[in-house]
Design goal:
single chain, alpha+beta, Pathogenesis-related Protein p14a, 2 domains, four-stranded mixed β-sheet, 12 strands, flat
Length: 312
């Protein structure tokens, strides 16, 4: 009996010792070691506890960098930075409406600048210049190939165009139904802005063009198709294009210099082509075309086909 009591006493003492050791360990962890989220430091015998430091979470707005006028730009374009800032505002507006962003084009910007300068020097604000040329005709005069085009113009008097002009021009266009329609047109792909200022008077021109063509067709087995590549206009200059095609079944694709070659192929006669792809489902390439060029497609099976053409 005494042995049993002694054993119980021993076990209780052992448990008590374990509890004491565990409490000492917990106290050590709490008071003598660094805790997550805190930094301990000792200075002149006094312990300091401070919260960790974090970098503030915020997006930094990048200041517009000073841009160097590219070689292809007209040397008179002294407001190049303003032109690009206005273009950025245009793309912001398109982005807000879930539209594809425009690509900057120096040739278009040169055309736009010449119109802004002409309006400033001759004291008028109009889409048609004093020679009677409208925006499309001015683009054509400068050999800028396109499927469609539009123009927005803006006039402002300001002591500080660098601060006021870009946003005010774009907001002004968005408030005007016709200019808003031009800026938010889903079909336009490339644009350029030209700005000319005389003292406090600034004239802004933005020209936009459609430089892509999409061909979507449901092909029938053993049929042969011809699709014009060159826009129906008075242009007659070589143009570089990027093209890619995809079909659900294998097809034959030819780039040919005119529709006559298509007619010869249909009549099983010899014909001319500049590019040939046989029994393919996908292609992607670059080539140069002239007026009257086209794409000829022969369907080996019933198939869905899509061809995207970008004019560079």
């Amino acid at each position: 009996m005494k042995n049993k009591r002694g054993l119980i006493k021993f076990v209780l003492i052992l448990i008590l010792l374990i509890i004491i050791v565990w409490l000492i360990y917990i106290a050590y962890q709490i008071f003598l070691t660094e805790q997550p989220g805190f930094v301990n430091s000792i200075e002149k015998g006094i312990e300091k506890i401070s919260l960790p430091t974090f970098e503030p979470v915020s997006e930094q707005i990048q200041e517009p960098e000073t841009l160097i006028l590219p070689e292809e730009a007209l040397p008179e374009r002294t407001k190049y930075n303003l032109e690009k800032e206005t273009f950025i505002e245009m793309n912001k507006a398109r982005q807000e409406h879930n539209l594809p962003l425009l690509v900057w084009d120096e040739k278009i910007a040169n055309t736009a600048f010449k119109h802004s300068k002409d309006m400033a020097e001759n004291n008028y604000v109009n889409h048609t210049n004093l020679q009677g040329l409208n925006p499309a005709e001015r683009l054509e005069k400068d050999k800028i190939l396109n499927f469609c085009s539009s123009e927005n113009i803006f006039y402002i008097e300001t002591e500080n165009p660098e601060k006021d002009l870009p946003e005010e021009a774009v907001q002004g266009w968005l408030k005007s139904p016709r200019h808003r329609e031009n800026l938010l047109d889903i079909n336009i792909t490339r644009a350029g802005v030209g700005i000319y200022c005389q003292t406090t008077k600034c004239y802004v021109t933005a020209n936009h063009i459609c430089s892509k063509q999409m061909i979507i067709e449901q092909l029938q087995k053993n049929y042969i198709y011809f699709f014009p590549l060159y826009p129906n206009s008075s242009f007659n200059i070589p143009v570089q294009i990027n093209y890619k095609a995809a079909a659900t079944q294998k097809i034959d694709v030819y780039i040919i210099p005119n529709q006559t070659q298509y007619e010869r192929y249909v009549r099983r006669k010899s014909f001319l082509f500049t590019k040939q792809y046989t029994s393919i489902r996908e292609i992607q390439n670059t080539t140069t075309i002239q007026k009257d060029y086209g794409i000829m497609v022969r369907a080996r099976h019933d198939a869905g086909m899509q061809i995207e053409i970008e004019y560079v």
